[in-house]
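Before drawing any conclusions, I needed to go through one protein's amino acid sequence and its backbone structure tokens, quoted below without any editing.
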Amino acid sequence: MKVVVHWSGGKESYLAYSKAVAQGHEVAYLLSYDYKKPHIFHSFSVMEVQSKALGVPQLKVKVKKDADVVETLTRLNRKEGIEGIVTGDISGTSDAQMHQAYYDMLSKAAGMSLILPIENPSKDTYDVLKEEVNAGIKPIVNCVNRNYISEEWLGRVLDGASIKDLKALADRRGIDVCGEDGKSYHTMVIDAPLFKSTIEIGKFKKKVIKEKTQSEKSIWIMMNIKEAFLRPKK
């Protein structure tokens, strides 16, 4: 099936992409939504380089309302024969259930199928995190919520050792170890098996963003990345 992959540049985006490829799907685009400024959680400068590393074009869509998404998906379906949307939601989590209902509505309106390739039979998202690290995915923590995670985690690579520390922290703080709840941290992938080159982060500045929701006030510390480069794999 010809598909697009919802792309934030984070570890679940890549895992979903790799699973879709393994299932035989043809990925036409990495689809990224430009819906909020500043982009607290994700870095478009890194996503552009990730697109080159994968050899798959990135499609950025400015979104102000749901109709903007449906219009884009409908055009992709009718003009380019794209039949499916792949998301990086982890099956069975509360966020995935919420997103699934939303994206299922949008995909049906556009005449597409919704695909969630990240299964979680154990219902423990730590198993997904271990799967990502064991698969050779190399994410860095690019954004942390100081309500839950200290600034020291910013820029840290998630590997076999650091995810154990993260698991202990998540258990203490009552947060999802994969960040699936969206309230603790976010990542950007700088290397992975399907990358043709590795990514080096260049200039960045730490930026503080205050966010208020109905449930809490958050202080996010993010890597405001200005430069990212492709480097040959060692």
Remarks:
- The chain has one domain: 2-231.
- DSSP finds six helices and eleven strands in the chain.
